[in-house]
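Saturday, quiet lab. Running sequence design on the structure tokens for the scaffold JK sent over.
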């Protein structure tokens, strides 16, 4: 996954896969998703990201499932 923020246009772009985009849908005001031919999510664009996504701060956290946590601590 790649996340890009374009300061000059206040746009956030989140790319989940590098599949070809077959369709773009507006799912909310200033929020668009790109789908591949099978309807899978390819990417998401958020315009006016500081307001719409409260993008003053970005963090990433990977959380293991409880089953995975038990395997690694056993």
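Result came back. Writing it out in full:
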């Amino acid at each position: 996954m790649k996340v890009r923020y374009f300061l000059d246009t206040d746009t956030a772009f989140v790319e989940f896969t590098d599949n070809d985009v077959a369709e773009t849908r507006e799912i909310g005001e200033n929020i668009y998703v790109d789908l591949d031919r099978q309807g899978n999510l390819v990417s998401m664009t958020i315009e006016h990201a500081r307001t719409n996504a409260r993008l003053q701060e970005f963090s990433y956290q990977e959380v293991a499932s409880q089953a995975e946590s038990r395997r690694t601590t056993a």
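Notes for JK: The mean pLDDT is 85. Residues 33 and 40 are 10 Å apart (CA to CA). Ask whether to fix the surface positions before the next round.
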